Please model this.
Amino acid sequence: MNRTAIVILNWNGLGFLKMFLETVVLNSIADDVDVYVADNCSNDGSPEWIEENCKKVKLIRLNKNHGFAGGYNLALENIDAKYYVLLNSDIEVTAGWLRPLINFMEGNPRVASCQPKILSYYNKDFFEHAGAAGGFIDKYGFPFCRGRIFNFFEKDAGQYDSSVDLFWSSGACMIVRADAWKKCGGFDASFFAHMEEIDLCWRFNKAGYRVSYIPDSRVYHVGGGALPYNSPFKTYLNFRNSLFLLYKNLPDNKLFRVLFIRKILDGMAAIMFLFNGSFSSVLSVWKAHMDYYRSLKELREKRIAVKKLEEVDFPPHVLNKSIVFEFYAKGNKTFNSLKTEI
Model:
């Protein structure tokens, strides 16, 4: 068993593999590091290209597109390692990027996962959407990051160069302790894609683990590689998975109140989409809520399973405010401007 396995999930991402896979190998490969590509049944020639051009990369072929969550679950079942590094195919890693992450995990056995500083590939002085300098949620389950709140991206001026504990680490690039992954059940495959890492990290927190950010490691993320940011399917997944996330993980004394308010806020978002002429987004929100109600029986069973992990009822690093109100009403567009301890 090698200590660390870098696992890149691919679905029709041949262009990104050609751009970045060689750099991943060159900047990561060592006696105790293996690089894998788990292919979600691509039809763009990705597996064949890997076999012909990347002899140091181990290929795992999956029988269909299982999504981000299901694909990783199946891939990691076939990998024996102490640490899994989940890495998007559209990420450029830098020299020495992996060592600080591994060293931190080695020195902190109660940390289940950590992430590097994630910057924009196209605008390298700015943080990138998917993770930035570490993830948090507000009291209504809206995710945000140090360095990125909604669509506002901060310039990296060293303001987040401290290592801190987080609520969630980014699925774009996260190192996970294999034992914690197995204990907490891995990703929820029903999420398919988007927010599955927040759901997993919520379980890590409930089970008494920590999630952390390591600024000494940095990577550059293209973003929107599998699903464009304006995709109606992405909108659907984000709204549906938010409801899944809250129902599964909220403590009993917060569940119905938070869900009620969240549904009102989702309705307001749908009205905004309507006024902006984005009818496909309105339909995405409607479908997300209908599918949430259809899934309640399964979600109840998952909620019971999550409760069995609990050492912490409501984990730390939750903003006890509405990030929507802070951002849109009060104009607090940066993490530091929130002026709160989380």
